[in-house]
Amino acid sequence: MTEIALRVYWLYTCAHWPQPIPKREHNLYKLHDQHVVRANNDKVSNSLREMEQGCLSEIEYFIQKYEQSEKTIDELDNLMKKCVEAEVKLYG
User: Fold this and answer.
1) Contact 35/22 with Cβ under 8 angstroms?
2) Cα–Cα distance for residue pair 81/14, rounded to 1 Å
3) How many angstroms separate the CA atoms of 1 and 61, rounded?
4) Organism's domain of life (predicted)?
5) Global pTM?
6) Which of 43, 55, 75, 77 could be bridged to 83 by S-S, CB 3.0 to 4.6 A?
């Protein structure tokens, strides 16, 4: 994976660091905290890792095609939404 693909994915899905009270965490952050961090669930963690690898591969492919003017930013937005929706579904 390219470093830029990893950064794009991370920025899109996890850009909200815990904030001083009151916390303004988005739904994905809360679900990740509940199902992965606090539950220490290896099955969910492994599934999440596999899913993230797939998303990173798709992002890397997008970047290559975008640099060749074969993809648009709108397509990146749709890809990111798809990745986030897949993670939300994973948590159940």
Assistant:
1) no
2) 13
3) 10
4) Eukaryota
5) 0.66
6) 55
Place of tokens 């669930």: 41
Could you report the per-residue pLDDT of 30-50, keeping only the tens digit for each?
A: 888 888 777 777 888 898 899
Position of tokens 């830029």?
A: 4
Q: CB-based contacts of 40: which residues, under 8 Å, 6+ apart?
A: none
Largest CA distance in the chain: 45
Query: Measured between alpha carbons, how far is 68 from 71 in angstroms, rounded to an integer?
Result: 8
Gap between the Cα atoms of 53 and 43, Å rounded: 16
The pLDDT of residue 18 is above 60: no
- Tokens 């509940």 identify what position? 34
Task: Compute the chain's Rg from CA coordinates.
Answer: 14
Which residues, at least 6 apart from 91, have a Cβ–Cβ distance to it below 8 Å?
31, 32, 34, 35, 44
Task: In whole angstroms, give the CA distance from residue 13 to residue 84.
Answer: 7
